Request: fold
Amino acid sequence: MKIHIITIFPEIFESYLSFSILWRAIDKWLFQCELYKLNDFSDDNFKRVDDKAYWMHGQVISAIPLAKSIESIYDNVGHKIPVIYMTPSWDLLNQEKIEKYYESLDNEFIIICGHYEWIDQRIIDIYVDYSISIGEYVLTSWELSTCVFIDALVRHIPWVIWNIKSLEEDSFSEKFDRKKEYPVYTRPEIFMWKSVPNILLSGNHKEIENWKKENLR
Ligand SMILES: C[S@@+](CC[C@H](N)C(=O)[O-])C[C@H]1O[C@@H](n2cnc3c(N)ncnc32)[C@H](O)[C@@H]1O
Reply:
């Protein structure tokens, strides 16, 4: 999977993608993130990419640098690829939708991170295939919602999560009827006044599986 990210702040992604599981996955070429600084596509002497909104408070990312950046990615790839725009207002994500995006998105796609209030609506009308919200609240950082989406998506690429069973048995998985995971324990068997449930110490696989199902939340 190759994800092209258009942003004013590539540094935020460099930092987020440089640690832990995601870094290991990138290092093993399980997926790639290509970062593009939006300002590099501005014709303005000061590399500005925003302008005042018509009849609305705040600044808006202009259509021209965004269109140029998307077209330049199309040119490099050799054809059009899906374009995603993160926004509080549209398709609200959940685990099932993440799985559908993982199945339906081509192996290569673009995510636009704007800045300020919004991006020019004509970019959404002309280029955007999927508008995705990570929750019904408003974030300040566009990069943050993009990181959340990428993180939830790339877990599904084989070998990003080494233990495939843990992926199948995560909260909201199909196997668990989209419910939340059962409680988990480790040693010691007794901590303060609470002990590990006897069934988990019994070694009886069938009963443990039943216990897990009964304790989904
Ligand atoms: C300050 S918000 C703009 C909010 C916009 N004026 C509105 O009222 O919906 C800046 C950007 O952060 C991103 N963002 C904020 N909240 C988000 C959410 N819940 N899901 C996805 N992206 C979000 C979007 O890209 C958004 O356009």
Notes: DSSP finds nine helices and ten strands in the chain. The domain at 164-214 is CATH 1.10.1270.20 (Trp Operon Repressor; Chain A). The pocket of S-adenosylmethionine is lined by residues 86-89, 114, 117-118, 133-135, 137-140, 142, 145 (CB under 6 Å).
